[in-house]
Design brief:
There is one protein chain. With 153 residues, the chain is an alpha/beta fold. The chain has a domain at 3-94 and 126-138: 2-Layer Sandwich (Nucleotidyltransferase, domain 5). The protein has helices spanning 36-50, 65-82; strands spanning 3-10, 16-22, 25-32, 51-59, 86-89, 100-103, 106-111, 114-119. The protein has a five-stranded mixed beta sheet, covered by helices on one side. A three-stranded antiparallel beta sheet has the order 6-7-8, with no helix packed on it. 29% of the residues are buried.
């Protein structure tokens, strides 16, 4: 019988990271440098063949407009088709609350629970990290993407 797990997807920058959690503990990390639109279907196909997934969790922003949109549409569709709940968390949960690049020198920042934008003289680099432990109850069922700013052409 496959292990019951929760999946956490961070697809805001490269590499894409997927954490597989059993009893809230990270048991496997899957990464890819490919574009999410190209690799998510094959990654999740393989994962779903190996595990009994209880929840999909994703970072719903802020970050790359296209990455957020692709992640949401992909996981929301999979959630409906497979009848697996979709949950979300903002990206600041996974980068130690550091600024996240928006466009140019504009970055997203989170202060007192509010996400705004701020111009930085030099854009700080942001690394997202899969936590060793998660508490599914801390994630929200409000899964709509948070873009923060409109699409930039």
């Amino acid at each position: 019988m496959p292990k019951k797990v929760d999946l956490l997807l961070i697809a805001l920058t490269s590499p894409i990271q997927i954490g597989v959690y059993e009893d809230d503990k990270l048991i496997e990390t899957i990464t890819s440098e490919e574009h999410s639109s190209e690799v998510l279907p094959s990654l999740f196909d393989a994962i779903l063949k190996r595990y009994d997934v209880q929840h999909f969790i994703y970072t719903n922003g802020p970050g790359s407009f296209m990455a957020i949109k692709i992640s949401f549409i992909f996981l929301r569709t999979l959630s409906i088709v497979k009848n697996i709940p979709l949950l979300a968390a903002d990206a600041f949960e996974f980068n130690n609350n550091q600024p996240i690049k928006a466009v140019g020198k504009l970055c997203f920042v989170k202060n007192a629970g509010s996400i705004t934008t701020q111009i930085f003289p030099e854009v700080p680099s942001t690394a997202f990290i899969l936590p060793q432990h998660i508490d599914v109850k801390k994630f929200t069922a409000e899964t709509a993407p948070f873009y923060g700013i409109g699409a930039v052409g």
